[in-house]
Write a structure and sequence with these properties.
single chain; mainly alpha; N-(1-d-carboxylethyl)-l-norvaline Dehydrogenase, domain 2; 5 helices
Amino acid sequence: MTGKIGFIGLGAAWELRAPRILAGDYEPGGTIDISDKDQELETAFAKRLGVPLLLANVTQQVYQMARARGLNKQDGAAIVKVFEQMANVTVGVAEKKEARQ
């Protein structure tokens, strides 16, 4: 490997979002509101087709938690803030970590 994480399924979304998450940059590219709406449409479509989406309800709950925290106009990657709060950890830059202490 050449310094990159070698998992199957990592692509452009990972390459573009991971550095922004680590830097604490959640300026919208696609907002939480849009991600939530898109997932709602995808789930409804899958239901009509009879296709199970095993974790769709779980991820929808995370987007709803993010919206409840007022993150709806931030980038979809801002859902990491929900997990940070749940786990009482901070992901990313040192300045952000120091601010939480």
